Amino acid sequence: MVNEALSGLTFRDVRPGMTVRILGVSGDTPELRRLQELGLTPGTVFQVVRVAPLGDPVEIALRGYRLCLRRSEASAFLLESLNDPLTA
To answer: Is 86 among the domain residues?
Structure first.
């Protein structure tokens, strides 16, 4: 588990084109365990493909496939931006 103060980035902050690394997961629910089984584990790098107009769901590309996540499902993931498409 990673301290939230160290990350500063959640799924609420991601935008299309961003490359993001998962730093950790805060919590232990069946839904979070299932997402980890799907490949959302600490250290995994993924790219944000699309964000729906109202911000939910978020489509990401990781490990050779694409996954759509509700922000409520993904709120426990602590993230680190590896690039920012607006400043790059």
So the answer is: no
